[in-house]
Structure formats: structure tokens, C-alpha cells
Amino acid sequence: MTLFIIKDTKAGIYPWYNHPLYEKLRQKNEDRIPMSNPARINKNRLLGVLAVVLGLIFWEVIAAVIIRYPFILPSPTDVFSAFVDLLKNGTLFLDFEASLVHFGIGLGAALLIGIPIGIAMGWSRRFDAFLDPIIEILRPIPPLAWIPFAIIWFGLTIYSAGFVIFIGSVFPVIINTYSGFRSVPRIFVEAGKMLGCTKNRALIRYIAFPAALPSVAAGIRIATGIAWMCLVAAELFGVSNYGLGKNLWQYYNLHRMDCVVVYMLILGLIGLLVDMMFRYYIDRHFLKWRTGEVV
Amino acid sequence: MGDLVVSNLNQTFHREDGSALMAIDNLNMNVRDKEFVCVLGPSGCGKTTLLRMIAGLDTATGGEILLDGERITGPNAKIGIVFQEYSLFPWRSVIDNVAFGLEMRSIPRQERNRIAEQYLDLVGLTQFKTSYPSELSGGMRQRVAVARALAIEPAILLMDEPFGAVDAQTRNLLQHELLNIWEKTKKTILFVTHSVDEAVFLADRIVVLTPRPGRICEIIPIDQSRPRDRTSVEFAKVRRYVLAMINQPKWTIQ
Predict the structure, then answer these.
(1) Digit-coded pLDDT (tens) for A64-105
(2) Which of A195, A197, A284, A295 to mutate against chain B (most B CBs within 10 Å)?
(3) What is the DSSP letter of B210?
(4) Interchain proximity A194–B81, CB inside 8 Å
(5) Mind listing the pLDDT tens digit for each residue in A242-280?
(6) Which residues of A touch B75 (CB under 8 A)?
(7) Which domain holds residue A40?
(8) Residue A164: DSSP 8-state
(9) CA distances from A146 to A103, A115, A175, B105 (A)
(10) b/e string for B90-115 if b means 16 or more Cβ within 10 A?
């Protein structure tokens, strides 16, 4: 009904709207802009669901009919029963909890250290010149290369896992905070000064930080992704009895590849959830002033 | 009070290759209390430079600027400014933007919101107080900027081509509103523009600057009563006079 009305008003404005020739052209154009039509968006979602279902069937056929060897490739049904089994007898929740602790320590430290460093470097050119070489030397070292020192410095504790995650996630936080502060428009700082906000601390707090927040948030988001990726490796060297990465490895040693797939999927799903939380919660609540601007 | 005296002002910028660029050359002018003065000149003549020095954002290489007898050395609570670009803080709502200066003076929230609303009312935007700047049109943003600059109750209001980025109709409307605000608040206003029409419409006196280096070319008092009629004979006469001055061949070559 609504669609019909819209069509009618358009036909009222453009007399040629319903002419058969124009109709062809119009439909062609509408095909080119798939997001313009809500019905089409739903259709596209359905397409995505269809792909997942097809993928599962394909996987099942390959695993159960062609390969028939769960160690090489467990089938979806194998994985599902392993999941049910793990829910009953496994340690999924304890693993999740342990992993969250590692993740929290690493990312928390990255924010606590990375944001102030990024602010200082972005605000003061001297501090930037001072710290930049060190950061540029340390940054390309892969986080996993720090594992030996993580063990030596922190022992086999949750803190060594946290340290590896910290190394992985601190640099994107520093760099995004830094570039956010660097690109604060001068006009905001000058407007602030003219309104009585003259001290460095106040300028950072009231002007530069809010102006840089979108960039800082983007850095945190990237860091969250990297932290989650470092998690499995950080747990592999036996820092705790539980952990999603730790037990993924444990089940590999037991040759339970179906359980390995369960842990893989859970890791992926939590990573996705964390990212979605960012996209929908943080952006809407803390960056709502950007609505209407091109992000 | 808002009595501004600029004496023997010089500003020289040093380029990277070591050569010097004189932007302002021995400039003397004054703005009396409650007066509306427009600074007019071709682009690049140092109008904005002059305004920035009066605001305390730049330091002059010579001479001095006195506001009510006090020398200006840096950003000052007695000076309000409206910039040419949109300078509202996009992360703050309209009312929080207007209240910003009061917040910096540690005035409690209730009190500062009350004052901010008063100034929003003055520019006619009370109903947009919870909007964000990105939701406002260009003209509305500059109105909020005026309210924000006035809320700290400065002795003098500096305006740097504030209506340069809005369309012609809105511009005329904003000029009218500005005159109303000026009459209500009795502020001293120093207004920089490159539009002859705007200057003749607004000012008590027009200070015409020469091209770089900026010097006073002439100070033109305008005695016509307000509101002025842009199409009237006297208005056109002043306009023609100022335009002829600005369009001198030796100026336009630059």
C-alpha cells in the first residue's frame, strides 16, 4: 500500500514516470542500488542465510560422505553433538571466564597505558619526537615473539597471557589516539581558548579528547579485534588450566577435532559479539553527535 | 565598557626561506564603547591577522592593543569572538555549546543553563537547545556561535567574516538580527568583512585597509539611521564611494 502511494506521488511529479520505456530504465537503476529498497534488504539477508545453510550442507556432504574421517574434517553433526557433550561435561563456561580475564587484563592495560601515551604524543610535539622512534622500533615485533619474555617476566600466570595480548593491542590504541589528537581542528582549540579554556589540561579534557574520541574509539575497536586474535596463542603455553585457547589446544592433543571446531566457532562468535557491541552500543551512545555526518 | 585602542601595530611573518612578509604596517585605529566598526579590505590585506591579534590568538611584532586601558597579551575573558568557519563543538548540544564559557568559569549547571537559554532566546533558537550542531543549517550554527560568544558577557565582540559561508538571503537576515542584538545588548562590535554592502549596512564607521601590507586607507563614518535601506540613494552613494576605493587599479593587480 505504501509502495503504491509513493509510486503515485512520483508519477504526479514526473509525468513520464509510468511510461513503459522509462519504467525499464527505472527498474534497471533500482537494480543498481540494492540498499534503497527495504524489501530488497530483507531478500539479501535471506540470501545470506541461504548461503550459510548451503555451506553447512556442503560441509556435511564432504565430511560424512566423501572424507568419512572426523579427524581430518568433523562434520557439522559431529560438531553439534560435541557441543552438546561439552555443554554437559565440558568446561566451556570456565574456559570462557578464564579467557575473559586474560583478555580483560591485556586490553585493560593497553587502554590504561596506550591512551595516555597517545594523548601525550598527539598533544606535544616534543613528546612525539621523544617517543616516536621507540614505538616505531617496537611496533613491528609480532606480539607472539614476546612470549618467551612474557614467561620469564610474569611466569606461567594469567599476567603473562595478558602481557602478550597487551603487546598486540597497545599499538593501535596509541596510534589512533595520537592521530585523533593530531587532527583536532585548530579552530576548536582557539574557540575554547577564547571562552576561557586556556590551560593544557582543560584543553585536552574539554576540547581535544572529545574531538578525538571517534578516532580513539576506532583504535579501541581495532585493538579489541587484535587482542582476541592474540588470545589463543597467549593461552597455548599453559598459563592456566582453563581458557578457550588453552582447551582448543588440549582437545587437539586428544585428537578430538570436533571439539576443536566447537572452540573455534565459539571464539569467532565472541569476537563478533564484541565487535557488534562496539558498533551498536559505543557508537550510538558516545558518538551520537556524529549522526548525520558521513562517518 | 569596551574601548579598544590599537596603536602602531606591526605584524611581520617569517617565511621558511628566511624572507619576511609584512602583513600589518604601523596600523592605528580605535573602537569606541558601544560602537559598531567594520574592517573592510581586499582579501589578503591582513584583516583576519588584525582580528586575531586583538583576540590575543597571535602576538604582534610591534605596537600595542589596549582594551579599556589594559594591554592584550593573550586570550582574554573580556573578548568574545565569532569565527568565519563553523567553530561550534560538534560533540556538545546547542545549549552546552552556549554554556561552555560559563562552565569554564565554574558556574553551576543550573545557573549556566539559565543564562545560556537567555542568549539562545536572543538569537531565536531556544527550540533547538538539545540539537547537535550537525543538525543545524549554516545560518543557525553562526547564530549559536554568536550566542556562545555573548554568553560570557565580553566587553567587545569580534566577528571574522561570520556570514561569509551562508547564502545571500540568510546573510541579509543575519545582518538584521545582529543589529537587533547589538541594540539590545549594547556591545562594542568589531566586524571584519570583504563585502562592501555588508559593511555599509552594519557599521557606524568603516575602516578600509590597503592591500598587503595592511595600512589604514581611510576611515569612513556612516551617519545614516538604522534600519538602512540597501536600495536608497544615500546607501548607494556610500557604496559607490567605497567600491571605487577598493577597486583602484593598483589594488586589484595584486
Answers:
(1) 888 888 889 999 999 999 999 999 988 899 999 999 999 999
(2) A195
(3) P
(4) yes
(5) 999 999 999 999 999 999 999 999 999 999 998 888 878
(6) 193-194, 196, 198
(7) 19-68
(8) H
(9) 16, 21, 20, 49
(10) bbbbbbbbbbbbbbbeebeeeebbeb
B 87-146 → A contacts, CB under 8 A = 87, 89-93, 100-101, 103-105, 132-135
Shared domain check, A241 and A168: yes
Are residues A120 and A245 located together in one domain of the fold? Answer: yes
Type of residue at B236 = A
| Chain B interface includes A283 (CB < 8 A) | no
User: Rounded CA gap, A237 and B161, in Å?
Assistant: 65
Task: Choose among B79, B92, B135: nearest Cβ to A194.
Answer: B79
Same domain, A33 and A122: no
- Domain assignment present for A284: yes
Count of pairs with CB atoms under 8 A, one residue in A, one in B? 67
Set out the domains of chain B in order of their start, with CATH numbers: 1-73+190-254 (3.40.50.300)
Q: Interface pTM (ipTM) of the complex? A: 0.91
For the domain that residue A90 is a member of, what is the CATH number? 1.10.3720.10
Q: Judge whether residue B253 has pLDDT over 60.
A: no
Interchain pair B89, A188: CB under 8 A: yes
Residue A102 and residue A237 share a domain: yes
How far apart CA B132 and CA B99 sit, in angstroms, is: 14
- Quick check: is A75 in a domain? no
CB proximity A76 to B under 8 Å: no
The answer to whether residue A13 scores a pLDDT higher than 90 is no
Q: Is residue A152 part of a domain?
A: yes
Quick check: B13 contacting A, CB < 8 Å?
no
State the total domains in chain A.
Answer: 2
